[in-house]
Write the structure tokens for this entry.
Amino acid sequence: MLKIKQLTIINNELAIAWADGEETFVSLDRLRKACPCAHCQGEPDAMGKVIRPITRLNLESYLLRKYELVGGYAFKPSWADGHNTGLYSYDLLRQLS
Ligand SMILES: [Zn+2]
């Protein structure tokens, strides 16, 4: 199971030091676009068709205001545009970076 030792924001990147010794980076841009919440990814409707995301992104969407680690398994960013429903599992974070 993945564990995070340290998280740092460097310029436009999130630097992650993993407990297993790996260090990875993911741009905030990429991070936001990969937001896993239903609002951003769209949800399948009753017919199984995925409704396109309704979230509009602007410059502030890529600014990280703050973040927290939830329950030792997920990263929860609060973006400057007020969006904060995305919960990134450590697995996802690692995949992205
Ligand atoms: Zn989202």
